[in-house]
Known about the structure:
By secondary structure, this protein is α/β, with parallel strands linked by helices. It has helices at residues 28-41, 53-56, 79-86, 93-102, 114-122, 138-145, 160-173, 198-206, 220-227, 254-271, 323-326; strands spanning 2-3, 6-7, 15-19, 45-50, 106-111, 128-130, 151-154, 178-183, 209-214, 232-236, 291-294, 309-312, 330-331, 346-347. An eight-stranded parallel beta sheet has the order 5-4-3-10-9-8-7-6. It has a two-stranded antiparallel sheet with strand order 1-2. Residues 291-348 form the AFP-like domain.
Amino acid sequence: xxxxxxxxxxxxxxxxxxxxxxxxxxxxxxxxxxxxxxxxxxxxxxxxxxxxxxxxxxxxxxxxxxxxxxxxxxxxxxxxxxxxxxxxxxxxxxxxxxxxxxxxxxxxxxxxxxxxxxxxxxxxxxxxxxxxxxxxxxxxxxxxxxxxxxxxxxxxxxxxxxxxxxxxxxxxxxxxxxxxxxxxxxxxxxxxxxxxxxxxxxxxxxxxxxxxxxxxxxxxxxxxxxxxxxxxxxxxxxxxxxxxxxxxxxxxxxxxxxxxxxxxxxxxxxxxxxxxxxxxxxxxxxxxxxxxxxxxxxxxxxxxxxxxxxxxxxxxxxxxxxxxxxxxxxxxxxxxxxxxxxxxxxxx
Length: 348
């Protein structure tokens, strides 16, 4: 499959998405700077989230509308106020997308309702991302799938049955190219709660491309995901965590995103195939294996012993496995110290 002209799959380097989310801190200038920093770091795409507080929730203090988990980054926050702070104004989208195009980045978004899909279609986005919390919103899935564009679907919290239902719905509605992202819907996520071994199972079970939406700190989980077959990596991204913002705590900074882009490509390249016996690149190194050499000058008829034969580098003589065989055999002629041992030099 492709997003734009960029191939997605194990024959291509990992597709890295920088998730801006609310890290613009309600500044368009900062949003554009994030786009530039993502491009400089080597990302393939910048991703937004398209919603308003009104399309996400109600302005209410009733139970469920205020985050009451004391361990949450947003403990005590009213959902409406949090979404209002984090949302990306819709009239910013064209400027952000234009800057991304100028910097060679794909730009697309996560829509949270049908009006957001209609708006994003007017901007000709190349793909759509479905958030984990909307993975089971089948009317939204149908709306996005009907565009015929690639869908990247996070699967945080979703059961096998729910993922299957989502995929069947998307495919029936017109989606052809789908990537499932393993995701842990905690912010931040711990490595111990990330369960990357799910990635190859997702691929085998559902027959589509797989990746990782990563909320852990650092790059370790993402690099490991590539080794398990992830072809898409999504990480939240900010200019500096110290600047604050609703998602800053678990977002990468520019130097970290650059490291992720470099090391994920190295991990992908290193996977290669199953090879025994050395590669063509290793051929010259065969010369530095150990082999049997004469280490003292020898006279004709002199017996070979541990005193005058040793296994040393380079590898131009007989293999070390013949050491016991040659002991006691005799030299057919004078042999100078430093001569690689060969059967033609031995008798007996």
